[in-house]
Amino acid sequence: MKKIIAADQIRAADQHTIINQPIASIDLMERAAKAFVKQFTSLVSRENSVHVVCGTGNNGGDGLAAARLLAEHGYTIQCSLVDIGGELSPDCQNNLTRLTNDPDRISNVEDLVIQEEVVIDALFGSGLNRPATGLFAQLIQKINTSSAKTVSIDIPSGLFSDCVELSGAIVEADLTIAFQRPKLSFLIPESGAYVGEFLIVDIGLSEDFIEAQPSDYFLLDKDDVSGILPVRKKFQHKGDFGRIQIFSGSFGKMGAAFLCGKAVLKSGAGLLTIHIPKCGYEIIQSGLPEAMVTVDDSDDQISTGEVFENTDVVCVGPGLGTDVTTTEWLKSLLRKSNKPMVIDADALNIIASHPELMDEIPAESVLTPHVGEFSRLFSKSLDGLERIEKMKSVASNRNWVIILKGAHTVIALPNGKVIFNTTGNSGMATAGSGDVLAGIITGLIGQGVSSDRAAQAGVYLHGMAGDLAKKRVGKMSLMASDLLNELPETIINVT
């Protein structure tokens, strides 16, 4: 997994690279500008006019270099440079000298006139140490209110790299092309909203140096997952791939049991038993004949049901409801069983209403809340970063794996690591998507994958299935069943 490191560590990586490659700082800036331009030209047609707005620091130097390179690529370029009497950084000054045409000088907000179709934001970089105010705030506001598409170099101007500080003006980028690593703030909902889509370009910093830096934050990618999935041997049988129980469903919510159960089987599990209320018997038996079914005493909700002695893993929660009888049953289940569990949806809501049950959750269980469920369980947080620090602490103290579902789903492991997923899209914000995720993770644990590794693989596969589904049906039409349809192809692609 690749580490996410702080702004001061990135600057240290710059210096390490400059000293040890060796390479002059101006040449490293040129390399970064070329990487930015290569990505930009692959996305933005030369038919679009471009306005590059540059500050006085190294991010402004990146912008000046990008303006020169884009002009060489045949783009119509307008360049503006903030000039309020201060000195430019040495590399910014050097790139100013390299420009054929002197840029417009901006000393007040009226000097910035945006008529182009694309704005490249190069006002501030990752070294920002105070909110953008005054003239810079006015310039940022002008960028934000223009009709141009905005592309930020490395980070949207005014955004902090490592914290959620939104008191100043911040560029609202449509796209951010960042160097070497995303910033932590890109992955937090409140600050990430300013980033738009982001792409990472390699500028040749020392990966050995970066990976040696202390950090608890990591990015999950395909290489991390490919070695997790079980490999089937010739003479194995279904009993070798896990005996799994799901407790799921209530009147009107039997679809959750179906989606979760099918995800368990699609992820490779050998034997699945679904415990459901009587009202769902025909639905599950006809819709998912591969699963065995046990039926509750109740017609409409789960009120009975025991964990079998030979069960490897239990999933509880999808479509469960929070009826009083279901609540009392869940209390009993948690107190009697020490099997690892995947706990989702209404099971989490019941536990939130009865926090003493947290002491009954088995070690190495996986909890899969969305933000609302997490807040009910562990109290509200000021922002996404505080929420992540809270889940990190709980996962470590309780020996659980916690998955916080969102645009960049976050996994907190008992060892203190926090892992951000890199797959998925907003089309997956649809009913049943979480039921599929719970099923995938349960299926992997049943096959002998540890809870922490199953969580990583499950989250990645779930998101990748969403990305494949988006290509086929688009974001607006994407349904949870589309994730199930794409899961086999996803597993093939990863392995």
Biggest sheet record: 11 strands, mixed
Find the CATH topology of the largest domain. UDP-N-acetylmuramoyl-L-alanine:D-glutamate ligase
In total, the number of strands is: 18
- Provide the CATH architecture of the largest domain: 3-Layer(aba) Sandwich
Taking the alpha carbons of the first and last residues, their distance comes to 17 Å
Helix content: 40-55%
Helix/strand-derived category reads alpha/beta
Strand order of the largest sheet: 1-9-18-17-16-15-14-13-10-11-12
The rough form would be described as elongated
Number of helices: 17
Radius of gyration: 26 Å
Task: Name the poorly predicted regions.
Answer: none
Mean pLDDT: 97
What does this structure look like?
- The strands form 2 sheets. This protein has an 11-stranded mixed beta sheet. Strands 4-3-2-5-6-7-8 form a 7-stranded parallel beta sheet, covered by helices on one side.
- It has 2 domains: 2-212, 3-Layer(aba) Sandwich (Rossmann fold); 222-494, Ribokinase (UDP-N-acetylmuramoyl-L-alanine:D-glutamate ligase).
- It has helices at 7-20, 25-43, 58-72, 90-98, 134-145, 189-192, 207-211, 222-226, 254-266, 281-287, 324-336, 345-353, 371-378, 384-398, 433-446, 451-473, 480-494, and strands at 2-3, 50-54, 77-82, 104-106, 118-122, 149-153, 175-179, 197-201, 217-219, 243-247, 271-276, 292-295, 313-316, 341-343, 366-367, 401-404, 410-412, 418-420.
- Helix 9 (254-266) packs across helix 15 (433-446), helix 12 packs parallel to helix 13 and helix 16 (451-473) packs across helix 17 (480-494).
- The radius of gyration is 26 Å and the shape is elongated.
- It has 495 residues and is α/β, with parallel strands linked by helices.
- The protein contains 17 helices and 18 strands.
- The mean pLDDT is 97.
- The longest helix is centred in the last third of the chain and has 23 residues, at 451-473.
